[in-house]
Design a protein that fits this description.
The complex is a heterodimer. Chain A is of the alpha+beta class. Chain A has helices at 7-28, 32-48, 57-81, 94-102, 161-166, 168-172, 244-251, 256-289, 296-303, 305-308, 311-321, 328-337, 347-374, 379-388, 392-420, 423-429, 449-458, 465-497; strands spanning 105-114, 116-120, 123-128, 133-135, 146-151, 175-177, 183-186, 191-197, 199-201, 208-210, 215-219, 224-226, 232-233. Chain A is elongated and about 120 Å long. In chain A, a hairpin with a 6-residue loop joins strand 9 (199-201) and strand 10. Helices cover 55% and strands 12% of the residues of chain A. Chain A has 18 helices and 13 strands. Chain A folds into 3 domains: 7-81, Methane Monooxygenase Hydroxylase, Chain G, domain 1 (Up-down Bundle); 105-197, Beta Barrel (Periplasmic binding protein-like II), CATH 2.40.430.10; 251-497, MetI-like (MetI-like fold). By secondary structure, chain B is mostly helical. Chain B has 2 domains: 2-76, no CATH class; 82-293, MetI-like fold, CATH 1.10.3720. Chain B is 68% helix and 1% strand. Chain B has a two-stranded antiparallel sheet. In chain B, helix 3 (82-113) packs parallel to helix 6 (160-168), helix 3 (82-113) crosses helix 10 and helix 10 packs antiparallel against helix 13. The longest helix of chain B has 38 residues, at 2-39. Classes of the chains: A alpha+beta, B mainly alpha. At the A-B interface, helix 1, helix 3, helix 9, helix 10 and helix 11 of A face helix 1, helix 3, helix 4, helix 5 and helix 6 of B.
């Protein structure tokens, strides 16, 4: 095979080198799973872009490769996380946690001795009267370093206590070493003391002994060091916990109840949003389709404005408008009727505004689709119905709806799937609140499964990646089934029309 | 008699239709008017009336990133770099949409015209896998880019390129839509091109791309809007204030402890207007593209 040196070959070689570099570097940093994905991508790239036989694969390699790396891998990884205790207090590996504890130091209070400070041309010096030692000069630039102590004379100009307090922060960041090699650190404002390791490694199994002599045993099923009294020490490490997260989800009091309530609300929310948007959009499309009506194009532009404005802006605007104390809606209601509803603290009202805002955001899409589909209904059907004497309502339900529904069904199903995961709306509008009472994890009345999972993973109080991963997988199965059903429905319909 | 009656009836029905539409529009457009009014109102809280009594340009100065000097001499600094956020959003969304377009179009050509093993299975898998909500893969994506960043710093956390890569992976739906469009192109055209000795890539570039311009425009706009409007992914992937996108940054105006309603209103109008205009400009062929491409399996 002859290789012409052209731009294409150069780009291929460059990409290949980059992929190779990433694969090896990931192996070196012990990211084995990710490294394997990169190896597969690299090998596939090398084969596809050099072999003539696999020419066709060049067309879909970028899309499939991207999908593999940024969708399939995260899905598998999330699934794996669902079987671990990965989370806020279990972020590190066992080795990292062990290193963390063994690098901790404490000052030995029994060796405490007073010190004074003196100012010289080269900075400050520390004087220990009990042992007659004096340190090298230091400045604020010395923070973090170890200074040697040498025997010396008592300096004449010792700083008053007020000046010493000012240097407290700098002193805390310094280590001092005696000529005998003993390390000293500041223990209080006026004293230094010996530094000793807080934990020492006892044996191969990773047991630790703390400065008071107590023994800590690693508990690998929980991912924590355990004291003799059975107490767990944070931070712990990431460990495999089997189906425990799934078990918590289904059986634990304080977790199962909110999940069931949230699941039911998610279905109501998704179904209600789709139905509401469809009904409003359909009604408007029917009115706008009326030939006698003037000013249609203006109505059309004004009516789709909610769809045109970026959703995150509209949602935040509504968040402000509905604000109980500073919002314009309560200002108006108060002026007109003397009422100030608790939009964000009453569960029912909060759910109502979530639905209202979502229908506000979503009806224009349905209206536009309906306007498109309405045009495909032959007008002679309506004329025939008018001759038969059918009224407008009858005409809608026996002619328009049956003809418009089949092409609409896939759109409605994908709208349902979209709303099932409509995280942006909930996070920006209510943050899931108002919070339910008596739950073990943060759960709100307007939380849908997606926002609930997001909060479990990323709110400061929870940070439970394991449980979030488990819930994500269950949701993925539900949504995937819906998507697959949609696909089958689309296939059937396409066959029917052909 | 009945003619007059019918005309009178028609008149009332028209009046009813217009009346209903105006009432509906009143509710729908209320937030826009209020936001506009708030952006000219003094301070950050409701003051007495919905129409500002003493209008001020303070919020607008701040939204444009300029200092505002109050009549009493107090200087107000802009709280957030709104225009920088808008630029970040537009930059990220533009590059990502362009990438999505290239990847989706080439893949759609392969799925529509080329023969290879496992085509249908791959298409179906793509659609189902894509249903995994990207927002829930955040933990995994965070871990992924945290590791990648150790190796290639440009692809770490808080890098725009990482976020662009994540948006690039959302191509499956778009491949389906473009494939539907490609399927409707007459196969005689590719045959003619093949007889003239065109390679697959030439056929794709010189026949399919020009014919598919409308649907490609639709995909570009859809991808662009999707990327601009993303909150969850960007909120986790971006950290530094000067790196944020508009969607993530805007949230900071309405925190419970720091509530800047007036500043938010001006910033929202300023940053939302260009995106809205782009959408209104693109919506006509967007609709035709959606209803034509979406249905074909």
């Amino acid at each position: 095979m002859t290789m012409k040196l052209n731009a294409q070959t150069l780009i291929t070689a460059a990409v290949l080198l980059l992929l190779l570099y990433a694969s090896t570097a990931l192996f070196m940093t012990q990211q084995y799973a990710l490294a394997m994905v990169f190896v597969v991508l690299t090998a596939a790239f090398a084969v596809i872009f050099t072999s003539k036989r696999l020419y066709t694969a060049r067309f879909y390699y970028p899309a499939i490769g991207g999908l593999l790396l940024f969708t399939v891998f995260p899905v598998l990884y999330t699934g794996y996380v669902g079987f671990t205790n990965y989370g806020g207090s279990n972020l590190l590996t066992f080795e990292q946690v062990q290193r963390f504890y063994t690098s901790q130091v404490v000052v030995d209070k029994s060796t405490e001795q007073p010190f004074s400070l003196t100012k010289t041309q080269n900075g400050l010096q520390l004087w220990l009267p009990e042992t007659q030692l004096i340190s090298e000069p230091f400045t604020s630039a010395s923070a973090g370093s170890t200074l040697m102590l040498k025997p010396g004379e008592q300096p004449s100009n010792l700083l008053p206590i007020k000046e010493m307090v000012k240097q407290r922060k700098l002193l805390g960041a310094l280590n001092f070493e005696t000529p005998e090699g003993i390390e000293l650190r500041s223990a209080a404002i006026k004293t230094l003391a010996t530094v000793i390791p807080a934990y020492t490694l006892l044996d191969e199994s990773g047991r630790l002994q703390d400065s008071s002599g107590a023994v800590l045993t690693p508990d690998h099923s929980e991912g924590y060091y355990q004291t003799a009294e059975g107490e767990y020490l944070k931070p712990g490490w990431k460990t495999w916990v089997g189906g425990r997260n799934f078990d918590r989800m289904l059986n634990s009091e304080g977790i199962r109840e909110p999940i069931i309530e949230i699941f039911v609300w998610t279905l109501i929310f998704a179904f209600g949003s789709v139905l509401g948007c469809f009904a409003v959009g359909m009604l408007l499309a029917l009115i706008l389709q009326w030939p006698e009506l003037r000013g249609k194009s203006i109505y059309r532009i004004l009516l789709i404005l909610p769809y045109a404005v970026p959703a995150f802006i509209s949602i935040l605007v509504f968040r402000g408008l509905f604000n109980q104390n500073f919002g314009e809606i309560n200002f108006l209601l108060d002026a007109l009727f003397g009422i100030k509803p608790d939009w964000f603290t009453d569960p029912f009202l909060a759910r109502t505004i979530v639905l209202f805002v979502n229908i506000w955001l979503g009806y224009p899409y349905m209206m536009l689709l309906a306007m498109g589909f309405l045009q495909s209904i032959p007008t002679d059907h309506y004329q025939a119905a008018a001759i038969e004497g059918a009224g407008p309502v009858r005409r809608f339900f026996s002619i328009t709806l049956p003809q418009i529904l089949p092409p609409f069904v896939p759109m409605l199903i994908s709208a349902f799937a979209f709303n099932f995961n409509n995280l942006v709306l909930i996070i920006l509008l209510t943050r899931g609140g108002p919070d339910m009472t008596g739950t073990l994890i943060p759960a709100g009345s307007t939380d849908i499964l997606a926002s609930f999972t997001y909060r479990i993973a990323f709110s400061d109080s929870a940070q439970d990646f394991g449980l979030a991963g488990a819930i994500s997988m269950v949701m993925f199965v539900i949504v995937a089934v819906i998507a697959y059903a949609n696909l089958i429905a689309m296939r059937k319909m396409a066959k029917g029309t052909r | 008699m009945s003619m007059v009656h019918a005309q009178k009836n028609l008149f009332f029905r028209k009046l009813l239709a217009h009346g209903f539409l105006w009432l509906f529009l009143g509710i729908i457009l209320f937030p826009f008017f209020v936001t506009l009014s708030i952006s000219f109102r003094e301070g950050n809280f409701v003051t007495g009336s919905l129409i500002p009594s003493s209008p001020t340009l303070e919020h607008w100065y701040l939204a444009f990133g300029l200092e505002y000097v109050r009549p009493d001499g107090e200087i107000i600094e802009p709280p957030f770099p709104v225009l920088l956020w808008l630029w970040n959003s537009v930059k990220i969304a533009f590059i990502a949409s362009f990438g999505v377009l290239c990847m989706a179009a080439t893949a759609a050509y392969a799925f529509s015209r080329l023969r290879f093993r496992g085509k249908t299975a791959l298409l179906d898998t793509m659609l189902v896998v894509q249903m995994f909500p990207a927002a829930l893969a955040i933990v995994a994506l965070y871990a992924l880019f945290d590791s990648l960043g150790d190796v290639l710093p440009i692809l770490g956390i808080d890098s725009h390129w990482s976020l662009i890569l994540v948006y690039l992976s959302g191509v499956a739906m778009h491949i389906w839509t473009i494939k539907g469009y490609f399927d409707s192109i007459d196969p005689a055209l590719d045959k003619a091109a093949a007889i003239d000795g065109a390679s697959h890539f030439q056929t794709f570039k010189w026949i399919f791309l020009p014919l598919a311009t409308p649907i490609l425009a639709v995909i570009f706009v859809l991808a662009f809007i999707g990327a601009i409007g993303d909150y969850p992914l960007a909120s986790i992937m971006l950290r530094a204030e000067e790196n944020l996108t508009l969607a993530v940054g805007s949230r900071q105006y309405l925190m419970d402890n720091r509530y800047m309603w007036g500043d938010f209103a001006a910033a929202a109008i300023l940053s939302g207007a260009p995106i809205t205009l782009l959408f209104l400009f693109a919506q006509r062929f967007l609709v035709s593209g959606l209803s034509a491409g979406g249905v074909k399996g």
